[in-house]
Amino acid sequence: MTLTKAGGDDRGTDPRLVKLQDALGDTAGVNVVSPPQINATGNAATFTAIAATAPADPATADLVARVRDRVVPKATAGTDMTVSVGGSTAANVDLAAEISSRLPLVILVVLGLSVIVLILAFRSLLVPLQAAVVNLICVGSAFGVITAAFQWGWGINLFAIDTPSSTVPIASFVPLMMFAGLFGLSMDYQVFLLSQIAQSREKSDGERAAIADGITHSAPVITAAALIMIGVFGSFVLNGDPTVKQFGVGLSVALVLAGISVLALVPALLSLLGGAGWYLPAFLQRALPDMDIEGASISERAAHATHEATTRAAADDGREPADPGDDPEPSVPAPVRARPAENAPRPVGDPAPAPSADGGAPSAHRPSPPEKPSPGTPRPPEGGMNGGRPPSAPPPGDGGESSPAPADRRADSAPPSH
Asked: Is 351:357 a contact under the CB 8 Å cutoff?
């Protein structure tokens, strides 16, 4: 039996299959077409067409589109066959075309939402716009690097890519995933710097001083964060999968560019813009809500409440009730007064100082005369609990001194003789 284009299967000699096979083989850019593979029931067959160009070559994508749009419709005209072009190469072309058509919309939505959030956060128009533009430049530069390294083949040997071809196709989902991750990380660095500058503007005298202060406080954080993520993504290059290498190269390069731009380009742009960079039109000031992202108002309210509580407590401690007839004297805090020892002896006839109204140290001025008890009120023993004796004096009758006169007659009595 002679092997023909039908592959030895008589069913492959169907004129419809032969016409389609010949049409595919005669197409420019097709290297070879395999014999048809027919299923058991004989109602489906597959051909394998191998392109003369690499899968990542744009000519291969053009070949897929030409076969679908011209070759197949012409070869199947007037028949009841339904032909579809598939396979890994065609699937990658279709996925890339679908993602490419949606990528501009994704970029616009992400940029728009980022600008809106930054306008609400920093109450400015130009500051959010420059952040979006700078981040977009960093992402676009990273796309250019992976295109040159993989699709153009400049980094095949540098990144140790094991491939028989001189180029490696870029996976269709890599640009979309890279944009989402890179834009988020680079925007974080922008927020770190801009928030510090915004806080410094409230305390500094000029724009340049605020920018310098903001860089001083945020540069260590941004540098450390960027170096950590560059090391993490750079390790992806050690993986043997070309797609993983693409992620590693693209993300690492983009983070290097983002860190440099945030610490060098953004401060320069803000210095050139000056105060105009933080301008927000009056109608937007009224229309936009005042968002306190960092919680400054909460801290201010807490500090104000603490200050009021401290003021009330200090006012309560500073009020001392004054006795009628007392000479006004400046109040002295109780801990500063020297309290005499409780059992220290006093000279005979020296009246015991009266305690102050707040329970603190005895008052230094002359005590007021004691009030006379109302009729019917039991009179306490004269001289208090010790009978008028000093704490260290012996009781009467024990050979000691005579007791001093009661407190209410002390002023008219002479001191006892020794």
From this structure: no
CA distance 63 to 127: 46
DSSP string covering 374-393, please? PTTPPPPPTTGGGTT--TTS
Q: Rounded to a whole number, what is the distance in angstroms from the first to the last CA of the chain? A: 156
Q: What is the DSSP letter of 79?
A: S
Instruction: State how far the Cα of 23 lies from the Cα of 116, in Å rounded to an integer.
Output: 55
Going by the DSSP 8-state scheme, the letter that residue 329 receives in this structure is -
217, 235 Cβ separation under 8 angstroms:
no
In 3D space, the residue among 174, 179, 173, 169 whose CA is nearest the CA of residue 140 turns out to be 179
The answer to whether 20 and 81 have CB atoms below 8 angstroms apart is yes
Residues 6+ apart with CB under 8 A from 349: 404, 410, 415
Grouping H, G, I as helix, E, B as strand and the rest as coil, residue 32 is strand
Nearest to 145, CA basis, from 173, 174, 166: 174
Cα angle 410, 414, 416 (rounded to 5 degrees) comes to 100
Q: Give the C-alpha separation, 197 to 214, whole Å.
A: 4
For the chain, percent of residues with pLDDT exceeding 90: 11
Which three-class secondary structure state does DSSP give residue 126?
A: helix
- The tens digit of pLDDT for each residue in 314-369 reads 777 765 444 444 444 544 454 545 455 555 555 555 555 555 444 444 444 455 55
Residues in the chain: 418
Question: pTM value?
Answer: 0.59
* Cβ proximity of 19 and 75 under 8 Å: yes
Read off φ and ψ for residue 146, nearest 5 degrees: -70, -30
